[in-house]
Amino acid sequence: MLEVLVIATIAALTASWVLPTFRRQSLQGEVDQYSRLVEVGLFNLRTRLREERLSHCICFVSDNWAPPASMGLERQQPDGSQAEPLSHCSEEDPSSRLRIMNLEGSRMSKKVQARSLESKFCISPPGTSATPQTLTLLLKSIQSDSDPRLLVRCLHMNGNGYLIRGNWKQSTQTCLPQWG
Length: 180
Fold this sequence. Notes:
This protein is α+β, with helices and mostly antiparallel strands and 180 residues long. It has helices at residues 2-52, 68-71; strands at residues 56-59, 112-116, 120-123, 134-141, 153-158, 163-169, 174-176. The strands form two sheets. The chain has a five-stranded antiparallel sheet. The longest helix has 51 residues, at 2-52.
């Protein structure tokens, strides 16, 4: 009987250590997967603009954490409807074919919050713009307020499409390229 009690205690202690770690890794994995979707979408948008020799401006709701659909990353809303382009950017962002996300309304988009440090970002084909304009997108789990060990991921892109992905360091307000 004592052996069973010892084994049950060891199993309970192991589970109490493993389950929170597994949950945190699962939540971080959702943020990482969504970050990769945004990264691929930005690269695809840059490629389409290069092929069509166009520049394109994207407008975001900046400086607030919000679901990706309501902040401008996705046009498909959680209820399945299509969002209109943001009113202050409608003349510059009228086309639904030029968008960031190719997989909108995914399971991850409901579990992630996004924030843009800029309200407007223009992408030009490589070699056509020397503007210092940059875009910094921050992505975090909706559970990150309850678990401060969850990392905020960042995507930092300049006007010619050079992208850095990494971890956001709040104290220095920088995107550290550590995430692989």
